[in-house]
Design brief:
homodimer, alpha/beta, Rossmann fold, three-stranded antiparallel β-sheet, oxidoreductase (chains A, B), ADH-like_C (chains A, B), 2-alkenal reductase [NAD(P)H] activity (chains A, B)
Chain lengths: 281, 281
């Protein structure tokens, strides 16, 4: 994991990533020419995908196809499973989301409002914070880069403490969150982007809070929740069609702009789900 | 919590602790003179306990009364709830217990064997390690003070990794355990004795493992499991009566020896559950 992006990327094999594709030819009985699919594809214009059984056929095309890389794809599954299955929120609870304007975070915030929770998000620019409070509908949001004391910031936004934390960031923010959790709080951990490119991860000092407050901390990945997709679509598609869920995307055109978009994730350059469009969409 | 024991103890009020007592007088309808009770009592020979509803009446006196400070008291409830309810062990799983010869750890190890698991304990002296392997019945045990590299030690005892960790210690041991957990592993956190007297807690670096291995980490206290006591007694009393569960106690006589026994917990002086006997037992 160390300095994974510090080295020059060498494209011996194409990078894999979640994408949307049109079937040109298939010997698999479930897929035929012209079908649209989403799943683990490759960073190339034409791909040979030897495990089509892992792809999911797209049945609903009245929504933007790019949504199948986000709200109807991995990000949506992650947000839905992580928030409802892992965190088990109750009405009126206090929810904190880090990386809140990202592919997953913006959905967790909206799901929290649908569940009757109070939700605050953190992000890394004024533009993102404004987006969270206006378009996406978080109750509050703050720019973590402008807070010298993250513990104090969380105490300002959560004087009663945090019941549910959706973790994407790790490091100092996680340490501050631990201090502000309420008894029996739940933390869904699906990533720690602040730590991926450090030569050594930052130490978390407040783990004793796990004991003192009887916290539940669950690491998870969307891959353990494939079975939840039909239930999730039944839940989410009506909201999308009625315009009751926003999904902010940051679309760059052309494979040649993919690497810069990828690296931009680690500096927070993107606003919303980062998508690279290869063909007309 | 900082330097709590660094200051001189001043006995303005008697220390509270879990004890066994005989009722001398009571106006509570459930308790009468001569009854034996266990629960939160005080470090004094005669006590006025204004909340007797929190005490539990002792019905089984064919076992040592001191057991109600341990295997039939808080420690037993902690071990049973933490292992079976929090960790939900499956037959054949790999279990690691820190502070394994202590009041709770020695029980977790024996419960793990009853559940068909492979169990390894760590402790801080050769005497304790021998006790774990002989009398208490752990599959393996090691002296953490003799291991320069705790990660390597755990890899030696758990080449397949750890499914269940029962945590009492925290600090460097927790960091090493995180590296050695298996996917979907569970960690029951009921204490971190290595951290209580540090001016600042040690940072835990390997929290990313929670995400990578989809770990479940639950802080808990026996206080959330009062309802489990009848079920626990039904489980544990037959084993005690049949001599199928060992319970090692370290009994000092006399209240005047209590403070030294308390401080000894933090240097690991005691072997087994530390008990202070005030009256004949």
């Amino acid at each position: 994991m160390k300095k994974r992006l510090g080295k020059q990327l060498t494209f011996v094999k194409p990078i894999r990533g979640y994408g949307v594709a049109k079937v040109l030819d298939s010997s698999h009985p479930e897929f035929k020419e012209g079908d649209l699919v989403w799943g683990l594809t490759k960073w190339e214009e034409y791909s040979l995908l030897p495990n089509p059984e892992n792809l999911i056929k797209i049945h609903h095309t009245d929504v933007p196809l790019s949504y199948y890389t986000g709200i109807l794809g991995m990000a949506g599954k992650t947000a839905y499973a992580g928030f409802f299955e892992v965190c088990r929120p109750k009405k009126g609870e206090y929810v904190f989301v880090s990386a809140a304007s990202g592919a997953v975070g913006q959905l967790v915030g909206q799901f929290a409002k649908l569940a009757g929770c109070y939700v605050v998000g953190s992000a890394g620019s004024k533009e993102k914070v404004d987006l969270l409070k206006s378009k996406i509908g978080f109750d509050e949001a703050f720019n973590y880069k402008e807070e010298h004391d993250l513990d104090a910031a969380l105490k300002r936004y959560f004087p009663q403490g945090i019941d549910v934390y959706f973790e994407h960031v790790g490091g100092k923010l996680l340490d501050a969150v631990l201090l502000n959790m309420r008894e029996h709080g739940r933390m869904a951990m699906c990533g720690m982007i602040s730590q991926y490119n450090l030569p050594e991860p930052q130490g978390i000092k407040n783990v004793m809070q796990i004991v003192l407050k009887r916290l539940h901390i669950h690491g998870f990945t969307h891959r353990d929740y494939d079975h939840i997709v039909p239930e999730y679509y039944e839940f989410v598609l009506p909201y999308i069609r009625q315009g009751k869920l926003e999904y902010v995307e940051d679309i760059v055109e052309g494979l040649e702009n993919g690497p810069a978009a990828l690296v931009g994730l680690f500096t927070g350059r993107n606003v919303g789900k980062q998508v690279v469009a290869l063909a007309g969409h």
